[in-house]
Amino acid sequence: MRYAVLIGLFIALLAPLAITSGSVLTIAVYAFMAASLAVSFNLIFGFTGQLSLFHAASFGVSAYIVTILVTTFGWNFWLALVPALATVILLSLFVGTICFRFKLKEFYFAVVTMAFSEVLRLITVNWYSVTNGSLGMTVVERPIIWTPWGSFAISSGVAWYYLTLALLVIIYVICRRILTSWIGRCLAAIRLNDQLGETLGINVFKYKLLSFSIGSALAGLVGAFYGFFSGFVEPHYFSIPLSLDIIAMVLLGGVNSLIGPVIGAFVLTALPHVIELSAELRIALYGSILIFVILVMPKGIVGLLTSKKHAP
Q1: How many CB atoms lie within 10 A of CB 24?
Q2: Which of 116, 149, 246, 258 has the fewest CB atoms found within 10 Å of its own CB?
Q3: CA distance linking residue 197 with residue 190, whole number of Å
Q4: 137 pairs with which residues across the strands?
Q5: Rounded to whole angstroms, what are the CA distances from 200 to 48, 120, 206?
Q6: What is the pLDDT of residue 308?
Q7: 8 Å CB contact between 217 and 65
Q8: What is the DSSP annotation of the chain?
């Protein structure tokens, strides 16, 4: 699998040399950001066993804070990332502490995190003087990168392609380093059985909170870039359908691997464009895929390929 990941990365690095269509580059950029979001979500869901519906809120909070600081107060994009991510971490610590102190799991955890996410969405919609309410905010500024040859704004499709590819690689590596460390072994024990983890001396509360906060912060990092690429932020970023999209990507690709959510994100991002689905039909497609995957291939695409590889 490691070689497959490296080959995929190599192809992704060279792909812009062969891609001449701007729309294809745009789809690739959205796929990279969706994959980044799905990988960070799977740290909480697949590897810690917590079905969080707060991920979209982390994404949206960061997107709004960076946008407001840059467009309203004239902050530098990279500097604005600091308070945005700090806010997401504080919010996730607050929500996680409540949920994990009360030992909420599965359905109850999902409902409570969804409630917090909905509260943040309502605040965004009703705080019109700051967020522009349901109309959202337009973003015309672009992040600036400094190099030895001078500074330039990230505005072209190719520049965004490599920036978001780098973002995906960074998030993938961070999650991989966590999962291959002693933290990952503790999370694996907790995912199997909380009580077993406690009997082994693992501080279940601490590691669940750590996983939830790191995953949410990484989602916030993606949200900060998303608004500047799309040129628009809106309350839809906090919505339940976005959370369901992320879950569908992870389930389709496979919850027991890091590369699975990347595959699921690419399939579900590209598919509506390939067969030209409307927004309503796309939601129906996601729902159908969720039902199909849960019933027929619960381990996702990666699980299916792995089982065939090891079949006698």
Answers
A1: 17
A2: 149
A3: 5
A4: 233
A5: 16, 37, 14
A6: 63
A7: no
A8: -HHHHHHHHHHHHHHHHH---HHHHHHHHHHHHHHHHHHHHHHHTTTT----S-HHHHHHHHHHHHHHHHHTT---HHHHHHHHHHHHHHHHHHHHHHHHHTT--HHHHHHHHHHHHHHHHHHHHH-HHHH-GGG-EE-----EEEETTEEEE--SHHHHHHHHHHHHHHHHHHHHHHHTSHHHHHHHHHHH-HHHHHHTT--HHHHHHHHHHHHHHHHHHHHHHHHHHHTEE-GGGG-HHHHHHHHHHHHHH-TT-SHHHHHHHHHHHHHHHHTT--HHHHHHHHHHHHHHHHHH-TTHHHHHHHHHHT--
pLDDT at res. 133: 87
**Residue 94 pLDDT:** 95
Tell me how far CA of residue 235 lies from CA of 52, 57, 195, 297, in angstroms: 19, 10, 39, 33
Contacts of 65 (CB under 8 A, 6+ apart): 80, 83, 84, 87
Find the Cα–Cα–Cα–Cα dihedral 109, 265, 272, 307, rounded to 10°: -100
- Positions of the chain with pLDDT lower than 70, given as ranges: 275-277, 279, 308-312
| Structural contact between residues 113 and 52, judged by C-beta atoms closer than 8 angstroms | yes
For residue 114, give both structure tokens. Answer: 């969804």
Q: Tell me, what's the pLDDT at 312? A: 56
Report pTM. Answer: 0.91
Distance CA 42, CA 37 (A): 9
